[in-house]
Request: fold
Amino acid sequence: MHQIEVRDVTLVYDTPAGRVPGVQDVSFSLEASEFLCIVGRSGCGKTTLLNILAGFLAPAAGEIRIGGKVVTGHGLDRGIVFQDFAQLFPWRTALENVAFGLEMKGVPKAEREGIALKQLQLVKLEKFAQSYPHHLSGGMQQRVAIARALAYNPAVLLMDEPFAALDALTREEMQRILADVWRETRKTVIYVTHNVAEAVFLADRVVVMTPHPGTVKAQVPIRLPRPRDPLSIEFLEYQKELLRHLTEQAAEA
Reply:
């Protein structure tokens, strides 16, 4: 059994101009511990699909199953990391932010703080446990957000362009840290990005979506050893393949 199954998912938005499809007949599946990236041009439904997976939106047709169970809303089996730095609570320290979900579950203070500290160690921020978000850089805030998403041990991690607002060097550092975290935790990850190099660096497999309406155009397995060398010929060839699919989309449009 696949850990995640997306079956013929369609979502339609009602707008003043009429009904507009967000995604249409999207299907793919993931094995446990697989790292899947979703790439595509703006308007192809990447974030819409992630919101359906998160349980924030209900599909008009089709279904999503996680661990064999149909997704009917948000649940603690899914951790979520957004692009926006404001996802952290500004009045809570890094440690308190990471421990928040455990606090809501009623985990005793000493236990939840111990778990939160381990997650901060995983993202190399244990020295900043007592720092507030406004004392942290953008990249550090995103690391806290990743630690918080992992703290209550979800089966699946959903990530919506979490590094898009970072400068190039910080983004590369965050990609390496995330690859290390994934190798350590072996979570099943669905990661939305518009950056094909990022997708090749992180993913076991890349789903390429085409816009208007958002559908799956191709699925590209990335058969490269880890850690990956972004300057290798093989790495660049995978980038070219993904860009070729995206260019074909533009020509067809």
